[in-house]
């Protein structure tokens, strides 16, 4: 009786400790796998495009929802285009606020902001189209869509440069969207050339 009692206690305890370690090592293993997918991808992106910062790539993709669950390059590409779409949407709202809240504004700045608002408004459906084309494996079309979003960010930023002494209030946001576009483009092109393998 005594023996039965103790073994019925000891065995579950043993199993519990055993599964505790199994689950620790498994979760570490999975995170390592998925983080290594992000690292490998960002390394390749940075190599293929000198304008693309490796650290920006790592930080953005790691912070993206579900990126740690991505188990191949294709999924990571979907995540990066979604991230770009959200970024562009946020920036459009930001420009709207700027136009609404700052009544006393240099008319030239105001007209630049209006242009940027239009550019970003068009970019939102384009990122949706990019995601659809990407999911349908129409990589050439997805490439064209993302490239046009990328162009929108530089067109917006360049507008402010046309008048001497002006400082663009959107430099950081334009750069962020530019870089996110570059990451997406880079992944699209990798898949187009090599499939999912990285
Ligand atoms: C890098 O950025 C410069 C300046 O914005 C641009 O002229 C050049 O085409 C870019 N290179 C690539 C590979 O995108
Ligand atoms: C855009 O993405 C970058 C990189 O992930 C992030 O740092 C930035 O906060 C985002 N900006 C907006 C407006 O969502
Ligand atoms: C990580 O990737 C693996 C396959 O490589 C996948 O099964 C798992 O769901 C992913 N996510 C996490 C959080 O481990």
UniProtKB/TrEMBL annotation:
Q: Signal peptide span per the entry? A: 1-29
Q: Which Gene Ontology molecular-function terms are recorded? A: enzyme inhibitor activity
Q: Which domain of life is it from?
A: Eukaryota
**Pfam families from the UniProt entry:** PMEI
Cellular-component GO terms for this entry:
extracellular region
Question: What keyword terms does UniProt attach to this protein?
Answer: Disulfide bond, Signal
Ranges for domain Pectinesterase inhibitor come to 33-187
What SMART domains does this protein map onto? PMEI
Name the family: Belongs to the PMEI family.
Protein name from the UniProt record: Pectinesterase inhibitor domain-containing protein
Q: Which organism is it from?
A: Gossypium raimondii (Peruvian cotton)
């Amino acid at each position: 009786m005594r023996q039965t009692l103790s073994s019925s206690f000891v065995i579950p305890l043993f199993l519990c400790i055993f599964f505790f370690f199994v689950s620790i090592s498994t979760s570490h293993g999975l995170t390592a796998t998925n983080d290594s997918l992000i690292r490998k991808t960002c390394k390749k992106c940075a190599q293929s495009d000198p304008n693309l910062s490796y650290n920006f790539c790592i930080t953005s993709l790691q912070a993206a929802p579900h990126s740690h669950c991505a188990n191949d390059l294709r999924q990571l590409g979907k995540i990066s285009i979604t991230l770009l779409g959200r970024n562009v949407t946020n920036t459009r709202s930001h420009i709207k606020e700027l136009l609404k809240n700052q009544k006393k504004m240099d008319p030239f700045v105001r007209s630049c902001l209006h242009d940027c608002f239009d550019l970003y408004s068009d970019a939102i459906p384009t990122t949706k189209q990019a995601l659809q084309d990407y999911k349908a494996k129409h990589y050439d079309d997805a490439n064209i869509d993302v490239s046009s979003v990328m162009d929108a960010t530089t067109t917006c930023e360049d507008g402010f440069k046309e008048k001497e002494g002006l400082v663009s209030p959107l430099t950081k946001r334009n750069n962020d969207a530019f870089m996110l576009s570059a990451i997406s483009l880079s992944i699209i092109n990798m898949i187009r050339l090599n499939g999912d393998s990285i």
